[in-house]
Write a structure and sequence with these properties.
The protein is α/β, with parallel strands linked by helices. It is built from eleven helices and 13 strands.
């Protein structure tokens, strides 16, 4: 794939949680992590994926006849989608054939000009609110050449840029993008390497090295983002370790991202096992966590 095009799975307008002001969020496909509580599981695979909305299905056979691999068929008056036969066709004819919108393609190839035009359409909102564009995912640096081209286009348009990253990326690629980025939202899932591996599929060694490299160059550009999940990341020892790490790297701000179950339905839609339910966070837990970061001299906010 050329550097002037990439796979985008969503563009959201008028967001207020991923950087300052009103923002447009561009979600790029592909992620090196497989977090067990991912809120965008459709983002993980680099290629487009097929989403199925069972409640919308009207049991028509147009989709089945449109599938060249025979992955969609009727069985006992029910429409069956057999994903082991799904070839994830580039055009996904089954989606076009489904008049009830029970099927959708998550991810499509877009060029820099098309994405930049979508972002530039909201410039008036950016000017009035101090906002801009945030590139998220997935992991936007998984498509590093495309990301750099997008950042350069936005810089030419005078648009504030933010990049949300897992940190499990090539440090050279990240540092190459850094001059074009006004703000990094750097995710740190867990401080303990083994717990991190169990939760995300990888240890955090690359992430910690990348954070150190980025913070050594531009600590003022980095906000550390920490997921807050009951029974996994909300214990005091973990919070204190993250706070000390942030202070060590001269970071001043931490965003807490409170876990919500809104992504659970997406697992069914893309054919992945649904993760077990997690007890909701209590207001006292959130307040105590914010206070712990504050005790270490950090500005802690809910994202």
């Amino acid at each position: 794939m050329s550097r002037t095009s990439g796979v985008v799975f969503d563009i959201q307008h008028y967001a207020v949680h991923d950087g300052q002001g009103i923002r447009t969020i561009v979600f790029l496909k592909g992620c090196p992590l497989s977090c067990s509580r991912c809120c965008n599981p459709e983002s993980q695979a680099p290629r487009p994926v097929l989403r199925r909305f069972v409640a919308r299905c009207q049991k028509c056979l147009r989709r089945a006849s449109a599938c060249p691999e025979g992955a969609i068929r009727m069985e006992d008056d029910a429409v069956v989608l057999d994903r082991q036969f799904c070839a994830r066709c580039e055009e996904m004819p089954c989606v076009a054939a489904c008049s009830s919108q029970a099927l959708a393609q998550s991810g499509k190839e877009m060029d820099v000009e098309a994405v930049a035009a979508r972002v530039a359409a909201d410039r008036e909102f950016y000017r009035n609110s101090g906002g801009g564009v945030t590139f998220s995912g997935g992991e936007p640096l998984a498509q590093s050449e495309f990301l750099v081209a997008l950042l350069a286009a936005c810089r030419q348009l005078g648009i504030h840029t933010a990049v949300e990253t897992s940190g499990h990326v090539d440090a050279t690629a990240l540092l190459a993008a850094e001059p074009l980025v006004d703000l990094f939202l750097f995710d740190l899932k867990l401080a303990d390497p083994e717990r991190h591996r169990l939760f995300t599929g990888v240890t955090n060694s690359v992430i910690l090295d990348t954070l150190a490299a980025l913070a050594a160059r531009s600590p003022q550009k980095v906000i550390l983002r920490v997921p807050l999940i009951h029974g996994l990341t909300d214990d005091c020892a973990h919070v204190v370790t993250v706070a000390r790490l942030a202070s060590q790297h001269r970071l001043t701000t931490v965003n807490l991202v409170a876990y919500h179950p809104l992504g659970r339905d997406k697992y069914r839609e893309v054919g992945l096992p649904v993760p077990p339910e997690v007890a909701p966070l209590t207001p006292s837990t959130i307040d105590e966590t914010l206070a712990l970061f504050g005790e270490h001299g950090l500005v802690a906010e809910l994202a």
